[in-house]
Design brief:
- The protein is α/β, with parallel strands linked by helices.
- The protein has two domains: 326 residues, Rossmann fold (3-Layer(aba) Sandwich); 28 residues.
- The chain contains 15 helices and eight strands.
- It has a six-stranded parallel beta sheet with strand order 1-7-8-4-3-2, with helices on both faces.
- The structure holds thiamine diphosphate and magnesium ion (MG).
């Protein structure tokens, strides 16, 4: 396992540009990181995100365990089965949500299809006392933190603003403004340090912040990185590079692999196969432990792929390269664990039947809940602004209720249930 001394590593000189390249290649720009490259080579390198020496992988797409010099993982058959079960169940919840949206029962859905390993690996790496700051697609991390999918369905049905307990679950509310949560997470982690909550790897606290590849172009990530670096904040920045920010592809965000950006801020960056739940688990577990012992922050770039639309309002066939999806299907995060379990004799068919039955039950429960979800009264949103009532919000509520009541004589009543 790599480990660092917090002070000395932060002042360690950062390696700079590689050798001068052949005529015609670009030198003296961002292109010559790790040697000189043509723009085409850089883009090709960015696209080849599931390969390369710098990618931490413990389970190949073919389901074979491989070793890594820095990141080992001892894992029992029961733990492997449990990770597989998590991924199957969150995928099923995700597929059910998409179907419900198409049937008009949810207003919108942000699919996680393809990103299960990144999210379950990271979520299961967290200790109970750690805190997560998600964006809007972290349904798998929510699952690991004990947030029921019905709570998330409520948001996407438009009847809830997020009502789980962020402190009790260690999972903050979804953030739609990209990527505001980097600031929230950095501030929270600075608080953990100032309150003396870091120290030992087991019992101390750390923070993990989730965001996407597109988010890295926003100022909030830069500000979060700077503050976290100079205050040694115990925060893991977990970037799910799913190759797209709606219709903007990765080469519109960066000219270097994203994990390498951490060098410029003075903290380590690691690239992990985000479709490999074992590698994601091992690397995130290591990173959170480093943060708990005072060696934060750390950037993890989890290379994965969005195997569905950005949201149900998007049509990726209008911008995605033909064949790309087919290529990534071969790297499916669930399939490689299933193949591994079968090939190594670590699970019987009864186990797979049991998980499939559980997924069916979950889908039925979520559907039934969704279609019978009560519509909240018009006053509810006002009760969510502050913990205690305030005169200004009370006045706004009363005004709105009076306005709302003015419609009753023409028969406009709030829709309830479906
Ligand atoms: C500040 C801000 N600008 C624009 C948007 C609209 N928007 C929503 S998602 C998105 C793309 C985000 O891409 P990425 O960070 O890669 O995350 P992904 O959706 O791929 O998980 C954009 C531009 C927003 N929500 N907030
Ligand atoms: Mg993205």
């Amino acid at each position: 396992m790599p480990s660092r001394n917090p002070r000395s590593s932060h002042s360690r000189p950062v390696p700079v540009a590689g050798p001068v390249g052949p005529p015609g290649s670009l030198v003296g720009t961002a292109m010559d990181i790790d040697g000189s490259h043509t723009p085409e080579q850089v883009i090709a390198g960015l696209r080849a995100t599931s390969e390369g020496e710098d990618l931490v992988q413990l389970l190949t797409p073919e389901g074979q365990r491989v070793s890594h010099p820095q990141f080992g993982l001892d894992i029992s058959p029961a733990e492997l089965q449990s990770l597989y079960r998590d991924m199957v169940l969150v995928r099923r919840a995700d597929r059910e949500a998409k179907a419900l949206q198409r049937q008009g029962e949810l207003g919108l859905w942000a699919p996680l299809l393809g990103q299960e390993a990144a999210q379950i690996g990271a979520g299961r790496a967290m200790a109970p006392q750690d805190m997560a700051f998600p964006s809007y697609r972290e349904h798998g991390v929510a699952w690991c933190r004990g947030v029921d999918p019905t709570e998330i369905f409520g948001i996407f049905r438009g009847v809830d603003q997020g009502s789980w307990d962020p402190i009790g679950t260690g999972f903050q509310l979804y953030t739609i403004v990209i990527p505001n949560q980097c600031l929230h997470a950095t501030g929270y982690a600075m608080g953990q340090r100032l309150d003396g909550k870091i120290g030992d790897a087991q019992n101390a606290e750390a923070t993990i912040c989730f965001f996407g590849d597109g988010a890295t172009s926003q100022g909030d990530v830069h500000e979060g990185f700077v503050w976290a670096a100079v205050y040694d904040a115990p925060v893991v920045f977990f970037c799910q590079n799913n190759q797209w920010a709606i219709s903007a592809s990765l080469d519109r965000q960066t000219r270097v692999p994203l994990y390498q950006r951490a060098r410029g801020y003075g903290f380590p960056g690691i690239r992990v196969d985000g479709n490999d739940v074992l590698a994601t688990l091992a690397v995130t577990r290591w990173a959170l432990r480093e943060c708990r012992t005072g060696n934060g922050p750390i950037l993890i770039e989890a290379c994965t792929y969005r195997m569905d639309a950005h949201t149900t309002s998007d049509d990726p066939t209008r911008y995605q390269v033909a064949g790309e999806l087919e290529e990534w299907k071969l790297k499916d995060p669930l399939e490689r664990v299933r193949v591994h379990l079968v090939r190594e004799g670590l699970a019987e068919s009864a186990f797979f039947d049991g998980v499939a039955a559980e997924a069916d039950e979950l889908a039925v429960r979520l559907r039934n809940y969704c279609i019978s979800m009560p519509a909240p009264g018009p006053e509810r949103i006002f009760s969510k602004v502050y913990a205690e009532p305030t005169p200004a919000v009370d006045a706004a509520r009363d005004g709105y209720l009076a306005y709302h009541a003015s419609f009753t004589d023409v028969g406009t009543t709030p829709r309830s249930g479906r």
